[in-house]
Amino acid sequence: MTEGGGHSLQRRLLVTMATGFAILLLLISALLWTYARAAANRPQDLLLAGTALSILERISAGPEGATVDLPNSAMEILSLNPIDRVQYRVFLPGGPTLTGTEGLPVPPGLAPSGAPVFFEQAFSGTVFRFVLQARQLTTAEGRQWVAVQVGQTVEARDAEQRSFFVAGLIGLAGLSLIGLGFVWVAIRTSLAPLRQVAADLAQREPADLGAVGGAPPREIRGLFDAINGFIARLSRSRALTETFIADVAHQTRTSLSALQGHLSLAVDAETPEQMRSRLVKADRQATRTVRLTNQLLANAMVIHRSDRSSLQPLALKPLVRDTLAQTLRDSRMRHISLSFVDEGIEPGGDIVLGDAVSIREALRNLIENAVRHGPPDNTITISLVASNEALVLSVEDAGPGIAEADLPRATERFTSLSQNSTGSGLGLSIVKAVTDGHGAELRLGRSPLGGLCVTLIFKRLLAVLLLALWPLVSGGGAARAEALVIHSATDTAAMRPLIEAFEARTPGVEVDYVEYQTLDLYRAMLREAEGPGPDLVISSAMDLQVDLVNRGLARRLQLPFQTESPSWAVWRSELFGFTFEPAVIVYDTRAISREELPASHRDLATFVRENEDRFRGRIGTYDIAQSGIGYLFASQDGLQGPQMLRLFEVLGRADLKTYCCTSQMVEATARGELAFAFNTIGSYAAAQIEAEPHLGLHFFDDYNLVMTRTAFVPAAARQPEVAALFIAFLLSREGQGIIAEQTPLIPLSPEQAIPPPIGPEMRARSGTFLPIRLTPGLLTYLDALKQRDFLSAWEASLGR
């Protein structure tokens, strides 16, 4: 058969597959991926451009130069993308940043322009897509450019690109079916020689181990050669097996025939002495037959186990000691000196890849050979020595040994090297099979004791590595209880039932709960952004929590079981709300009757203005400069319309008093110092007024803001898995039930029954609650300029 003979199967397959797949899949898939990226960028870029334009429109020139009043609509536009984090800044090209995040990247050489410019850059370890747009402004210093840069992470774009690409691939699947038809035809045509081989092998008799004939193509000639090579090896293996079976049959037949002959002679004996002599010979022959059978079975077992590749990490020293202990129970060992020596083996240094059963059988055969062929007072020494790469197991005896010329034949089956030997010739053959199956080396030589020295050399494993991995494999024993560190702006008493329930359901976990005020917690997290901190952060200041998550300080979670939170209470699978807590008015029924309470925020301004002297110094609310939740409620009220600004002015003229927290406002109202307190947290207020029968709760008919306490796992958390379990527990049916029944908080789940006094009031106003959504829109009033102007307006309204 020449090299050029036959057709090219590979060429036929490649031509057909190239026509059906190369152009369709490679080129179209590449074009589809590029198109999918462009399609994913288009709607997201419109959001960025719309945000930049809305900010540009609010840039103006003031006495101190350019300034901006960040519109809430800008962040609300970005909130249409519920996945990505955002960054922005307003700056003078080549000058300072007016507001926003300093240090946002800009491509070198990019000049300010009135047209939006889009680009992607890495910032804080994450890829952002930015838009940069500028406008010229007339200031006291003349015309100057003011630029706006807005960016989003690209997670949503990547997800949309993959979605578009997969949808396009479904269309390609139909075309691929056509290509598969071409491939099928090509394979059917090209693989005809293989079908001929299959038909040839199927028609053969079991005993036919001849080579497969034919003239295969070049591409499958190697397959033909491999099949014929396998058949040749199978033929040799079969011949060896038949030879072994014949040898076994011969040895067994000979041994049994000899046994039968001795017994027949015993039957024909004429005297008791003659019968006894012949029975003794029969007994010896029976012992040899039993030993032969055992060794035949042992030889088959060793070969079988080596074929199964049942090698595992194994310590040799204890295995040798156990084998010797079992051997010493044999009565034949009473007058034999048996010793074991191990040198230079450290703990864990005797590990090899081995099969305990096979190695034990090899060692038994070596000792049995030494006992059988040596003198009655034989000396047998077993040693185990470690080197850098190997473990050397040696068995030495003081017997006759084996002549130098006979050593090469000593490991052959059924080979007897001495006329006086009564062995089967299988002992060293079994040892050889064991070493071959372990990839070990077998050496035969002269022992210093005068007899045979058999040496088995095994390759060592890296024992140190095994010992290091053992705690991971075995489970590491009893784990020490670890603390789950929670930093929270929620009262400890309110969270205690949840903490105790979680600890009871999570053995080995202890919760270390640290309480903060909302602003103190926010500042602490900013300080700990680069170092170790808590495992979980809980706060009612939703805007501050969104800011921390938007800075990349949170870890994305895959909760261990499904939780159904409303969309407004989850952001990026990183920030999770778990309560539903409306803002409420707490009033003193001795100072205000229920009937005269205003029905809306607009009516509240009118009510206070008409009763200004009556309520002077007797209205309370949060000090929004010091309270994160107070600032959140005030800024969200400011978004509801211009009437809130008038309300703040009216409250200021009535000498509004400010407090740090709900508890102080409720206590002041209970003492009669306040007639009512505005924007208190409903859950805390409801819990406190249960002991004060002259206090009441009031909701408005126009809207009632609702905040949710939120939790996230910091990126640097030491126990993120346990922290995720705690969040999942808070959102579970069980956790929500504990919130409803055992804490003053109000559960997020609408299925839970809310007890009085706040429950009936909430059910009566069920359509008036306005949840504050977890979106980047909450960042608007955290803008430095926006916050400064808002607090200045607040202070001015209070006459401070």
Automatic annotation (TrEMBL):
Its lineage reads: Bacteria, Pseudomonadati, Pseudomonadota, Alphaproteobacteria, Rhodobacterales
CDD domains membership: HATPase, HisKA
PROSITE patterns, alphabetically?
HIS_KIN (PS50109)
Q: Which domain of life is it from?
A: Bacteria
Where does the record place the Histidine kinase domain?
247-462
* Major site of localization recorded for this protein: membrane
Q: Where in the cell is it found?
A: Membrane
| Protein name as catalogued | histidine kinase
Keyword Kinase tagged: yes
* Gene3D superfamilies with a match to the protein in the record: 1.10.287.130, Histidine kinase-like ATPase, C-terminal domain, Periplasmic binding protein-like II
Q: Would you indicate the residue range of the signal peptide?
A: none
Membrane-spanning parts: 12-36, 164-187
SMART domains referenced in this protein's UniProt entry, alphabetically: HATPase_c, HisKA
Pfam families annotated for this entry? 2CSK_N, HATPase_c, HisKA, SBP_bac_11
Key word Phosphoprotein present: yes
What Gene Ontology molecular-function terms does this entry list?
phosphorelay sensor kinase activity
Known catalysed reaction(s)?
A: ATP + protein L-histidine = ADP + protein N-phospho-L-histidine
Record InterPro entries: 2CSK_N, HATPase_C_sf, HATPase_dom, His_kinase_dom, HisK_dim/P_dom, HisK_dim/P_sf, Sig_transdc_His_kin-like_C, TCS_sensor_his_kinase
As recorded in UniProt, its EC number(s) are: 2.7.13.3
Which organism does this sequence originate in?
Pseudoroseicyclus aestuarii
Entry keyword set: Kinase, Membrane, Phosphoprotein, Transferase, Transmembrane, Transmembrane helix
